[in-house]
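Title: [Solved] Electron transfer flavoprotein subunit alpha/FixB family protein 3D structure

Original question kept below for reference.
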Amino acid sequence: MSVLVYTENWDGKFKKATFELVSYAAKVAEMIGSTVSAVSIGKVDETELGKLGNYGADKILKVESENLKSLDNQVYTDILAQAAVAEGAQVIIISHNNTGKAVASRLSVRLKAAVGAGLIKLPVSTEPFTVCKKVFSGKAFANVVLKTDVKVLTLTQNSFELVETENKASVESFAAEVGEPKTVVKDVQKQTGKILLTDAEIVVSGGRGMKSSDNWGVIEELAGVLEAATACSRPVSDEGWRPHEEHTGQTGKIIAPNLYIAAGISGAIQHMAGISSSKCIVAINTDSDAPVFEYADYGIVGDALKVLPALTNAVKEAKNK
Ligand SMILES: Cc1cc2nc3c(=O)[nH]c(=O)nc-3n(C[C@H](O)[C@H](O)[C@H](O)COP(=O)(O)OP(=O)(O)OC[C@H]3O[C@@H](n4cnc5c(N)ncnc54)[C@H](O)[C@@H]3O)c2cc1C
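Solution (posted by the thread starter after getting help):
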């Protein structure tokens, strides 16, 4: 019996989100009196694999093959299903990112397992196995009972803290049958020199209140000094002021940074659905009745075009002290 966690890597390196997932898996294993087996797919060196032990993995199953250079949902699902059966996994934990969403649903069919998708904290109880997720665009929480023997859980990024342990994990090659990928990636164009929105600890975001794309310099300057990513509301990307990949919300990216600065954003429910899990929200708006202030930890009533440069200067001064 074990808790199986899929530890995704990017060019052979794990990110913080992976370690959060392993920390979460270790706590779930503790709750059900089990151990953690981590599955790593693709080429990752032993030192990097060893880091998974520091967050609570007991055993690491590595699967390497020429066919695993890029993600193919069906092939990856197949490997995880084989690992789950071999390890007698009761619970399988995956990140609630694009990979996780694609793989979890396939795994659930394959293993006849219920899915708890987009979880935000540890299971509320194990008897019955009850998980907690946000519903109605973040307006409410739902406790969902998963009744199947095997459960698949996807965890929202940045919703669980890293827990370091003294654990040492064993690393084994797992001889999975690896099928031919049906999806072939011909070309990858990576963003360079930019902090990815989904990885960012700090995000500076602008809405229609910024008035025009010409005013984005003040957002970028603050993001620069804070080493933050930039984001925007949907009308901003619809207007073509910013690229669509920056749009957050119900129909955009769902993020949970440590700090989200919302400038000239009204706080419509569809926007907040994508960012309300942020640890700290700072809102800047000229309208003191703007809905965004209901969600904000700190609110500044004022013109974003003046407040943002003042914040940038304050951060620069604080850094120079
Ligand atoms: C099905 C559906 C899905 C949607 N999905 C999304 C989504 O994923 N993401 C999303 O963002 N929206 C989404 N929307 C749109 C959403 O309902 C809102 O219309 C949108 O979020 C509003 O964007 P905004 O806050 O930038 O603009 P506005 O609502 O126009 O708000 C601008 C704000 O800026 C303030 N302001 C004006 N001037 C200044 C200034 N100088 N300084 C500071 N503040 C100023 C104003 O007081 C106002 O509060 C969706 C809508 C629907 C129907």
